[in-house]
Amino acid sequence: MRKKVRAEKQEDADNYNRSTKPQLTVTDRVVTLNANTQGAGDKGVTADMDIFVPANTALVITSSRGDVTVAGMAANVEVNHHRGEVSVNDQTGNIVLNLDGSAARLTHVKGDASISGKANEVDVEDVDGTLHLNGEFQESVRLVRISKTVTFHSSRTDMEFSRLDGRLDLDSSDLRADSLVGPMRLTTRSKDVSLEV
User: Where in 130-189 does DSSP place strands (E)?
Assistant: First the structure.
């Protein structure tokens, strides 16, 4: 773990450091790790943590700032994230992302994926299962090779189709897709639409 503590005096920094030690609790078969950066109140404490667990461990991650990276897991992963970027790759199992002002990157997922909330840039590539996007997407959405049903719902666009063999790009003014497999349902407003077989 790498921790950064902001203080005017060394004595204050030492106190903030002591009061923000990570907390580990075990209940039955659930292990909870709390970075405890709020242990010093509103003082400026940030922590970078590298956590290694067996690949078949189901994860629930809640983070209020910064970046979260999950790689090589073989169980379900849920990430609740506020402000930053979530990156998941080489995942066997389902993924659920609940975002609030975050970006998301998913690559090589052998399971279903769901992204909801308020997201910035979303980039999803090579999903063997279904993909569900539900919320407000502030910047761009890029989808590449989704093997099963794709559903997308926002205040401006509602669509569903059976599979994506190529690529789909969506931003505030354009929707472009190639090698999209129907049947397809699309309702949108204020967008230029270009679809290719």
Answer: 131-137, 141-146, 150-153, 157-170, 174-188
Residue type, 72: G
Query: What is the sign of the dihedral through the CA atoms of 7, 13, 19 and 23?
Result: positive
CA gap 159, 88 in Å, rounded: 24
pLDDT digits (tens, 9 = 90+) for 64-76: 778 999 999 999 9
Query: Among residues 35, 33, 40, 34, which one has the least CA distance to residue 5?
Result: 40
CA max distance for the chain: 66
Say how far residue 153 (Cα) sits from the centre of its chain. Answer: 17
Helix (H) or strand (E) holding 83: strand 77-92
Cis peptide before 183 (omega within 30 of 0): yes
Separation between Cα atoms, residue 190 and residue 142, nearest integer Å = 19
Per-residue confidence (pLDDT) for residue 127, from 0 to 100: 97
Give the pLDDT confidence of 120-174 residue by residue, as tens digits.
Answer: 999 999 999 999 999 999 889 999 999 999 999 998 889 999 999 999 999 878 8
pTM: 0.86
Residue reference for tokens 């956590």: 51
DSSP 8-class letter at 89: E
